[in-house]
Amino acid sequence: MSFKRVALSALLLASVSACGGHSDQTQQGQQQAGPPPVGFISVQPQAVTLTTTLPGRTTPYETSEVRPQVNGLILERLFREGDQVRRGQALYRIDQQPYRAAVASARASLARARAAIASSAALQRRYGELVKINAISRQEYENSITSAQQAQADVAAQQAALQTAQIDLERTTVRAPISGRIGRAAATTGALVTSGQATPLTTIQRLDPIYVDVPQSSADLLRLRQQIASGDLSRGGGAARVRLRLEDGSIYPVEGTLQFADVTVDPATGTQTIRAIFDNPRGLLLPGMYVRAELVEGTEPDALLVPQRAIQRDEKGQPTVLVVGQGNKVEQRALTAPRTIGDNWLVTAGLKPGDRVIIEGGSMLRPGMPVTPQPWKPNAKPAQPGGQGQSPQGASAQAK
């Protein structure tokens, strides 16, 4: 019986010694591991181009609704729908017969007025001789002068009437007021049209170049102007550049330029309309298309960029970042990051040039913890804690 007790005591002592030895090895391994490694980047100021992407609609450079200026029946349509037409090209012919008759009547009236001038002028000369010898009264002579002047005025009036009749005759041929792409015909041969009617005969649109109208917040435009005025942004020489992304996601191959910003703010939406102009030689852009315009606001010469993967949010939703501070200890910084540029955040406050921002290995870190900083290599494999780079299975095998 005493022999069994002695054996059991020896077994318990061996077990305790083994557990104590394993615990000592673990503590020694943790001490040898040291502070965890982290990958960092050193933020440095750099020049970046700031852009804003906004929705917009294409608008024709010029639009003309073609309406008749005289009354009559359409005898002929002289264009094909969808064709490119030139300014002054004949589009419709209206029945000319009434207007030719009006021109002939105006010519006859002008001839009669001119004949009356000759008669009144001769009468004025004859009365001028008779009044000298008191053969007629002074009143009769003055009446002859008035009659001659009235005859001259009648000639001028008939000349204007003839010119009006000729203009109306010319307008029986409806011509294109601008060059551009002509649309659907709203009137056919045999239709009765009237001068200045509400419904246009057709519409012509000039599509090369073409406008893109983009609404932008008036607050954003005000901020942009203030940044340019203070020197924080540089616009460079020339007009601001604009790029287009089409409805299918492709990039329009031609860059446009900013024309102007509307001088009035829409009180309902708080936006101003920005108009850009684009060359459209192939007619790829059509009126009314939905596009996304990338407006180049300017260049910020000393911007600090931080990768998005390094930014975290606190309980208030404010952006924060972990940096390697003095003594290689972790520090947390609150940031002001108003916008993204690619896969980076533009930081305007909270960091200074040279700060070491932790990019990798910061998920389990807390402010004040010591770390082993290493320059971050985007294509390198993540470092293992302790720097041993071995698999969990290998570590278990060594522990055993």
Automatic annotation (TrEMBL):
Record-level GO BP terms: response to antibiotic
Family according to the record: Belongs to the membrane fusion protein (MFP) (TC 8.A.1) family.
Natural source organism: Sphingomonas mucosissima
Domain of life: Bacteria
Encoding gene, per UniProt annotation: ttgA_2
Name of the protein in its database record: Toluene efflux pump periplasmic linker protein TtgA
Any one annotated GO CC term: cell envelope
Matching InterPro entries: MdtA-like_b-barrel, MdtA-like_BSH, MdtA-like_C, MdtA-like_HH, RND_pump_MFP
Compositional bias annotation for Low complexity: 380-400
Region spans: Disordered: 366-400
Positions of the Multidrug resistance protein MdtA-like barrel-sandwich hybrid domain: 63-205
Multidrug resistance protein MdtA-like C-terminal permuted SH3 domain location: 302-362
GO molecular function: transmembrane transporter activity
Cellular location(s): Cell envelope
Domain Multidrug resistance protein MdtA-like beta-barrel: 209-298
The entry's keywords: Signal
Signal peptide: 1-20
Segments forming domain Multidrug resistance protein MdtA-like alpha-helical hairpin: 103-171
